Amino acid sequence: MSRTVYVNGEYVPEEEAKVSVFDRGFLFADGVYEVTSVLDGKLIDFDGHAKRLERSLNELDMDMPMGRDALLDIHRELVRRNGIGDGLIYLQVTRGAADRDFAYPEGATPTVVLFTQAKPGLADAPLAKEGMKIISIPDLRWGRRDIKTVQLLYPSMGKMAAKAAGAHDAWMVEDDHVTEGTSNNAYIVKDGTIVTRHLGNEILHGITRAAVLRFAREAQMQVEERAFTLEEAKQADEAFVTSASTFVMPVVSIDGVAVGEGVPGPVATRLRDIYLEESRKAAI
Ligand code: PDD
């Protein structure tokens, strides 16, 4: 069945959605994106995603193409038109179309695209019971990973390397320390303390990360925001990742080494439950 997508002010069937070959998103990866999850037809953490979108755009000298309420209306209209119960909304804003030149063009009109991905049972993913197998790869991305740009080729290569190794995903390592997963933030648990890398230019400032750390602190769990080594991760009691599409997902092995008991741990499992419960309550 054809989806209805949003392109520059119009709702159109996906087959009719068109963007210029001169679009700078296509030519220079000159654009940013957000992925927001939908549970029971409602948006999870919409405001966090809208704020990060604005931050990413600002870092690239672009303005928000519309206000928060207009953006929310489009998200909701796409959920409605596509009958999404559980799924994802992908949003992309590029600098727009202009003759090819490295310098930013003056006065280009941004391209705004949104589409839905239906994911029935998103919150009941069997992988949450099984846990993810992770491999490590060097982090060869650029230095502004805090900006959520559409240049995702290295993460794609990482996912393919994981697949070839019979694993689910890859964690990226720089100077012996884990930065993050290819499309998620990385955590370990040692002696009851949750450890995740501090914010900086080296990682994406995950919206799920912010919520999960808030919930963990509210539940009196110990949290340390600092870099951890790959070796520490292999010797941790537990490991997990967070993202809008996986929520909290346990990790059970790293480079073939079992983490803890080699099954999803109690902290990750509890945080997943809390996150899903609280996020559903706050969904809009
Ligand atoms: N990825 N780190 C990276 C590199 C990411 O691509 C993502 C999200 C995250 C988690 O951020 P958040 O909690 O805001 O989803 C961390 C999305 C889901 C994606 O590219 O599909």
Automatic annotation (TrEMBL):
Pathway(s) served: Amino-acid biosynthesis; L-leucine biosynthesis; L-leucine from 3-methyl-2-oxobutanoate: step 4/4; Amino-acid biosynthesis; L-valine biosynthesis; L-valine from pyruvate: step 4/4; Amino-acid biosynthesis; L-isoleucine biosynthesis; L-isoleucine from 2-oxobutanoate: step 4/4
Gene3D superfamilies assigned to the protein according to its UniProt record, in alphabetical order: 3.30.470.10, D-amino Acid Aminotransferase, subunit A, domain 2
Protein EC: 2.6.1.42
Reactions catalysed, as given in the entry: L-isoleucine + 2-oxoglutarate = (S)-3-methyl-2-oxopentanoate + L-glutamate; L-leucine + 2-oxoglutarate = 4-methyl-2-oxopentanoate + L-glutamate; L-valine + 2-oxoglutarate = 3-methyl-2-oxobutanoate + L-glutamate
GO cellular component assignments: cytosol
One GO BP annotation of this record: amino acid biosynthetic process
Function: Acts on leucine, isoleucine and valine.
Entry's family note: Belongs to the class-IV pyridoxal-phosphate-dependent aminotransferase family.
This protein's name: Probable branched-chain-amino-acid aminotransferase
Species per Swiss-Prot/TrEMBL record: Tranquillimonas alkanivorans
